[in-house]
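Entry 14. Ran structure prediction on the chain below.
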Amino acid sequence: MLPTSQKPAGLFSAIVIVASLGYFVDIYDLILFSIVRVKSLNELGITAADAVTNQGLFLINMQMGGMLLGGILWGILGDKRGRLSVLFGSILLYSLANIANGFVQTIEQYAWLRLIAGIGLAGELGAGITLVAETLPKEKRGYGTMIVATVGVSGAMLAYWVGEVLGWRNAYFVGGGLGLALLALRVGVYESGMFEQTKNSDAPRGNFLSLFTNTTRLARYAKCLLIGVPLWFVVGILITLAPEFGRELGVTGPVTAGLGVFWCYFGLVFGDFASGTLSQLLRSRNRALQVFLGLCGLMVGVYLFGTRGVSPTAFYAVCFLLGVSVGFWALFVTVAAEQFGTNLRATVATTAPNFARGSVVVLVPLFKALAGPLGIIGSAAVLGVGSLVVAFWAVSRLPESFGKDLDYLEE
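Output, structure tokens:
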């Protein structure tokens, strides 16, 4: 039970507001590279189309590799030191790294700073979702995480606008500045009472390896990871490489990655709101996830096989609907948090989304390898079907967690 000194937080408490704004800045910085990829690489002397694609994928892999490392680091710290220390520590690191990104002069500098930024970006969402889930009443926590996601993903739209108006270097400076400004909102945010109680128990906290020493626990964890892979297939390949897909599909005008990201994330705003609301109305996280995975499969098919020869406007409309269909990100992280006890919850809620994001590190070389014999359309189709089938299976095998009491420890 919660300590008597801490009452459950409200939907618009300081905790929910700070977690939402933190995710807003997180998404701004996370997606900014996809938006400014071509312009920034061109200015650094990379102008050939193939080189822009290859160097862009390399930098994405560096960023995602950092998120894999950061997911483990911040997840362990979240259960050992507390959710707040991770929430604000990660914001500080990625803010400073993104300010430094505005000064890069070489690809090597760019790569290392994307790695450091990735490590920082890995901590905010898991810590924020864990804190919100543990401080809101169990009947309302789905709405709380829905607010975090809906506010957060709109950060991508600001990133597009700033990148277009102020240029790519200034866009990095703005992102770092927003993160540093957010740290001033620490006042009024308190630590989770559930976490505070674990300090008085003998149960080990933040033992990442314990996820692999118990077969049942490992299976539950693996299923959580697999649910998020389709989203990052969509964002990391279909949307990031929208210009390349647009040329292959014969879209009648130029397609830019920036507008592709903008419309996809505009769709994600509606999708995250809809998926969170649907899970509350159905009183089932799993059924809501299955609905959205089915919708995602439909829209991936439309993107790859229904946009040949269309106008850029119609192509961007499909990017928007594709974004709606993958708008289950916060719902996925909420499910991961609800599957585990308080002494491992931050570890899981932080590593799960980052391992899902980091799946791009595996998806990209697979995409490139399959693109040789199958072309980029065939390659994307194979990866899309594979990731969606596995994710649907994983959801169907997870215990339902709607309304679950989270005040317990993993043995």
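Residues 360-397 form the longest helix (38 residues). Will compare against last week's run tomorrow.
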